[in-house]
Design brief:
heterodimer, A: mainly alpha, MetI-like fold, 2 domains, B: MetI-like fold, 12 helices, 3 strands, about 5% strand, globular
C-alpha cells in the first residue's frame, strides 16, 4: 500500500471494501456454517463438539432420502436428454429459417423462462389432473409427469445457449458441403452438430442443474410416491433443523457446484480452441 | 437466413417436435388455468366454466388486495436493498485489479449455483433463536456482563437478567432478508456489465473540472449505469414478486405473498378457479414489468440513433 489511493481507485476505498466484505459475509456465512455443521458431532448444531461423518452415514442410510435422490437424478437425466434435442431443434430453426410469425414464436419460446414458477407449477398440476395422467405407473414411468414439466422449463434455456453458439457459425460451410453433394441430414450430422457441441454440452449441464434444483414446479407435480430430493428436503426442513439435513444439503451443493464448474470449464476450453483455430 | 418455403419438409421436421412440446406441455396447461379462472366451484372438486368474473373480483377484496400490496412492497424493498448493496460491489469489482476481477465475479455467482431451498435452509439455521447470529450475540452479551461485573456494576443487571435471543425469523424482515440473499447476484451482474463499459475518462474529466466525488457519482456514473440499474432491478423485482419458498419458510403468518395464497388455493383450500385467477393476475403484473423494461430499452436505443 505504498501508492496513495487515487481518485478512481474505488476498490481501495475503505467504505467500498467494507461494503464488499459485508456482502460476501452475508452471502457465504450461512452456506459455510451449513457445511461446517454437517461435520459437527452434536445435534444442537451451534456449538462445535468435534469432527464426525456420522450425519453423512445417517443421510446415506435414510432410505426415503436416497430414493428421493435417485428420483431426482433419473428425472434430471431424462429431462436433460429431451431438452438438449428439443432445444437444439429450436435453435437451428430460428437460426436458419425466416417464417411468418417468427417474432411471436420467439416470444412464446421465452415464456417458460419469464413466467413465475408458481404459475407454471399450478398449470402443470391442473393439466395433469385434468387429462388424468396415470399416477400408478411402475417406477421410472411414474416420474413421467415431473420429467415432462422439467423439460418444458429447461429446453427454452438450452435453445438460448445453443443459439448463441450458432451466431458464430459460418453458413458458407454448410453451403459448401451441400454444393459438394451432402444431403441435409449429412450436413446436420457432420457439420452442424460438431459445431454446436460446446453449446449442447453447456445447455445440457444447465438443464441438468435446473432440473436437479427445481422445487416449486416439482412440488406441484410430485405425488406421495414420486418425491424428489428438494421436495424431500423441504418436508424435512419444515419440521426441524438437523445435521442430517445439513449433510444431505452439502452433498447436493458439491454436486451442483462441480457440475456447473465442469460446464464452464468445457465452454471456456471450447472457446479457447475456437480462438486458436481462428487466429 | 432462408425462407421456410425453400425447404418446407426440413422446416417441419426441425420445427414440429419442439413446437408440439411447447404447445402440448406448456401453452395448453397455461390456457387451461386461464379458462379455469373463469369457472365456478360446484361442490368440493367440480368446476364449471361459466365465464364469471367473480374470481377476479374476489382478488380486489381488501384481504387479498393487501397481500398484493405486501408482495409489491417486499419485492420493491428487495430491489432497493439489493441495489444499495449491489452497486458498491459492482463498482469495486470493475475498479479492482484485473487479476482479482474474475475471482470476485465468481464469488458473486457461486452461491447462485446452490439450490434455492438449501440457501433458504442455511439462512434459517443461522437466523433462528438458537442459531448462529443469536449465539454470537449471546457471547457478546456474556462478555459485556463480565466486563460490567469486573468494574463492580454486575449486580445492577444493566443488560437485563438474562440474554433474550432476537426473533429474527418468521417475520417480514426475515422475508426481505431472504429475498435479498437469493436475488443479489441478479443485481450485481447487470450492474457490473454496464459499469465495465463505462469510459473512465468521463469520471476523471468531471473530477478535474472540480466536481466532488459524490457529484461526479450522481451526474456521471449513475446516468451511465442506468441501463444496468434498470435491468438489475427488473431481474430482481420479477422473481421476488412471485417467490413462494422464501415467504413460506422464513415468513410468519402475516408475511404471505401472492404465490403462497395461490399455493393454498391449489393445495389445501381447493379453490382452483380463484387460484387460477390469482396466477394470471401475477402473470399480468410480470408482463407489465417486462413491458416497462422493453419500452425503456427501445427509448434509449432511439436516443442512441438520434
Amino acid at each position: 500500500m505504498a501508492t496513495p489511493v487515487g481518485p478512481l481507485d474505488y476498490a481501495r476505498r475503505t467504505w467500498v471494501r467494507l461494503m464488499l466484505m459485508v456482502v460476501f459475509v452475508f452471502l457465504y456465512a450461512p452456506i459455510v456454517t451449513l457445511i461446517a455443521f454437517s461435520f459437527n458431532d452434536s445435534r444442537r448444531n451451534i456449538v462445535w463438539q468435534g469432527f464426525t461423518l456420522d450425519y453423512y452415514g445417517k443421510a446415506l442410510r435414510n432410505d426415503s432420502l436416497i430414493e428421493a435422490f435417485g428420483n431426482s437424478l433419473t428425472i434430471a437425466l431424462a429431462s436433460t436428454i429431451i431438452s438438449i434435442i428439443l432445444g437444439a431443434l429450436v435453435a437451428v430453426l430460428l437460426w436458419r429459417f425466416r417464417f411468418p410469425g417468427r417474432a411471436g414464436y420467439e416470444g412464446a419460446m421465452a415464456l417458460p423462462i419469464v413466467i413465475p414458477e408458481i404459475c407454471m407449477g399450478v398449470a402443470m398440476l391442473a393439466f395433469f389432473s385434468r387429462v388424468g395422467w396415470p399416477s400408478d405407473l411402475p417406477w421410472p414411468f411414474s416420474l413421467s409427469a415431473i420429467t415432462i414439466a422439467h423439460v418444458s422449463f429447461s429446453f427454452p434455456f438450452v435453445a438460448v445457449v445453443v443459439r448463441a453458439r450458432l451466431e458464430g457459425f459460418n453458413r458458407e460451410l454448410a453451403e459448401a458441403a451441400q454444393d459438394l453433394g451432402a444431403t441435409e441430414w449429412q450436413v446436420f450430422r457432420d457439420i452442424m452438430i460438431p459445431f454446436m457441441r460446446p453449446g449442447l454440452v453447456a445447455g445440457g449441464m444447465l438443464a441438468f442443474t435446473l432440473s436437479l434444483d427445481d422445487f416449486v414446479i416439482t412440488f406441484f407435480t410430485s405425488g406421495p410416491n414420486t418425491v424428489t430430493f428438494p421436495v424431500k428436503v423441504y418436508s424435512m426442513v419444515r419440521f426441524s433443523v438437523t445435521p442430517e439435513v445439513n449433510a444431505a444439503s452439502t452433498i447436493l451443493i458439491v454436486i451442483t457446484v462441480a457440475l456447473t464448474a465442469t460446464a464452464l470449464w468445457l465452454q471456456n476450453r471450447a472457446n479457447d480452441k475456437a480462438e486458436r483455430a481462428a487466429g | 437466413m432462408e425462407s421456410w418455403r425453400r425447404n418446407p419438409l426440413v422446416f417441419w421436421i426441425i420445427g414440429l417436435p419442439p413446437t408440439a412440446w411447447l404447445l402440448g406441455f406448456f401453452l395448453i396447461p397455461l390456457a387451461l388455468v386461464w379458462v379455469l379462472s373463469f369457472a365456478e366451484l360446484r361442490g368440493v372438486v367440480d368446476m364449471e366454466v361459466t365465464g364469471t368474473l367473480s374470481n377476479y373480483a374476489r382478488a380486489i377484496d381488501p384481504l387479498y388486495l393487501q397481500i398484493f400490496v405486501k408482495s409489491f412492497v417486499f419485492a420493491g424493498l428487495t430491489t432497493v436493498v439489493s441495489l444499495v448493496f449491489g452497486f458498491p460491489v459492482a463498482l469495486a469489482i470493475v475498479f479492482a485489479p484485473r487479476r482479482w476481477r474474475a475471482l470476485l465475479l465468481l464469488l458473486v455467482i457461486l452461491p447462485f449455483w446452490t439450490n434455492l431451498l438449501i440457501r433458504t435452509y442455511a439462512l434459517i439455521a443461522v437466523l433462528r433463536t438458537r442459531g448462529f447470529v443469536n449465539f454470537t450475540l449471546e457471547w457478546f452479551w456474556d462478555q459485556a456482563n463480565a466486563v460490567l461485573s469486573l468494574i463492580g456494576l454486575g449486580s445492577l443487571q444493566l443488560l437485563g437478567g438474562r440474554f433474550e435471543p432476537l426473533e429474527l425469523l418468521y417475520n417480514n424482515t426475515a422475508v426481505v432478508v431472504g429475498l435479498v440473499y437469493v436475488h443479489l447476484p441478479f443485481m450485481v451482474l447487470p450492474l457490473y456489465a454496464s459499469l465495465e463499459k463505462l469510459d473512465r475518462s468521463l469520471i476523471e474529466a468531471a473530477l478535474d473540472l472540480g466536481a466532488s466525488q459524490l457529484h461526479a457519482f450522481r451526474t456521471v456514473v449513475v446516468p451511465l449505469a442506468l441501463p444496468g440499474i434498470i435491468s438489475g432491478s427488473i431481474l430482481v423485482f420479477i422473481p421476488a414478486l412471485g417467490s413462494f419458498l422464501t415467504p413460506d419458510l422464513l415468513g410468519g403468518t402475516d408475511s404471505q405473498m401472492i404465490a403462497n395464497v395461490i399455493e393454498r388455493q391449489f393445495k389445501s383450500a381447493n379453490d382452483w378457479p380463484f387460484g387460477s385467477a390469482l396466477s394470471f393476475l401475477l402473470m399480468y403484473l410480470t408482463f407489465g414489468a417486462l413491458a416497462l423494461r422493453a419500452l425503456y430499452s427501445r427509448r434509449t436505443a432511439g436516443q442512441g440513433r438520434g
